[in-house]
Amino acid sequence: QFRSLQHHLRTAQEHEKRDPVVSYYCRLYAMQTGMKIDSKTPECRKFLLKLMDQLETLKKQLGDCESITQEIVGSAHVENYALKMFLYADNEDRAGRFHKNMIKSFYTASLLLDTLQIPPGAHAPANTPAEVPHNAGVTNNAITHPSLQNVPAVDPSLYNHGDVRLTPEDFTRAQKFCKYAGSALQYEDVNTAVQNLQKALKLLTTGRE
């Protein structure tokens, strides 16, 4: 049932040493999404408890890192990282260097933008998996979209297009383009994926579609 989470978990594993903060938020997204899918059957609960354990371990390793203790800082970190991947892939595409790393960078960027949908206060619980009761339910508020006020600002140093002011609606549209691209890649439709990611990149760097 958690097959849809494998891409985010693979991204988390790939970034364990490269960027632990990115790894943390990918796992957090997988846990929260997994709880929405199924938090009651024994196999799914075992999987989720293992994820909670991994998140607690990461939190201890990162200590007082602001990107973990402050959700807005963490979201901005992940978003800026995703935009850097966008720019790398887009530059490669414009230069005619069409290769596997370019495609993967586009796709990873779309996966990372998914993690920005983690609701405020949804960080891993303080309890270890062994302390989580097996009959613990999931409240209706466990999985919600973040309020528009919580969308972090983009680091303007990531691009050189002057003073581009983006609205919350711009971020929402950009995330939709990335979702469409992610779906296209699952069907190996590279052209559609690249087109949607280019639309997102144009919107984020110019404020226009």
TrEMBL record:
Gene3D superfamilies in UniProt: Vacuolar protein sorting-associated protein vta1
Entry's Gene Ontology cellular component terms: endosome membrane; multivesicular body
One Pfam family linked to the record: Vta1_C
Cross-referenced InterPro entries: Vta1-like, Vta1/CALS_N, Vta1/CALS_N_sf, Vta1_C
Listed GO biological process terms: late endosome to vacuole transport via multivesicular body sorting pathway; protein transport
Domain Vta1 C-terminal: 168-205
Localization, UniProt: Cytoplasm; Endosome membrane
Membrane topology annotation: Peripheral membrane protein
Keywords tagged on the record: Cytoplasm, Endosome, Membrane, Protein transport, Transport
Vta1/callose synthase N-terminal domain location: 5-118
Family indicated by similarity: Belongs to the VTA1 family.
Protein name listed in UniProt: Putative vps20-associated 1
Species: Hymenochirus curtipes (western dwarf clawed frog)
